[in-house]
Design brief:
Helix content: 40-55%
CATH topology: D-Maltodextrin-Binding Protein, domain 2
Signal peptide: 1-21
Low-confidence stretches: 13-27
InterPro entries: Bact_solute-bd_prot1, SBP
CATH class: Alpha Beta
Strand content: 15-25%
Number of domains: 1
Shape: globular
Protein name: Extracellular solute-binding protein
Keywords: Signal
Number of helices: 6
Largest sheet: 4 strands, mixed
CATH architecture: 3-Layer(aba) Sandwich
CATH superfamily: Periplasmic binding protein-like II
Mean pLDDT: 76
Strand order of the largest sheet: 1-4-2-3
Length: 142
Amino acid sequence: MNIKRKYVGTLAIVLAGGIIAGCSETTSPGDGDVVTLDFLTFADPAQLKVYQRAVHAFHELHGDEIQVKLTGLSTDNYTQTLTTRLQGSEGPDIFYVQDFSMSTFVQGGAALPLDEFLEGPDSYVGKEDFPDDIWVRLIKMA
């Protein structure tokens, strides 16, 4: 597993909820290189502060190796903006989607399953740590 995918998965677990990892690149940093991940979410100002705290906590753990650029958009046209960016190969590395729109991103190949990561040695949580119904809904939609 390359370093970018490892940290995308780790950040996804840290941020939890509707975060889905979608790596647009597969490069690994060399000595001293810092990987930057683009994280797009919709949020009002109060929600964005929560995401910023999570990103700050992630930087405390991994800031020497990886930085996260957080971009928050209003809910108006968020899904359309995200879809357009992904179709134009300008999609973020990490993005938030709600369960009702997940199947679109899975079928389009923009969202990667986290199964392998969750079952691997780099994850500190497993699928069993999430409510069962979250996986059932996503499987049915895909």
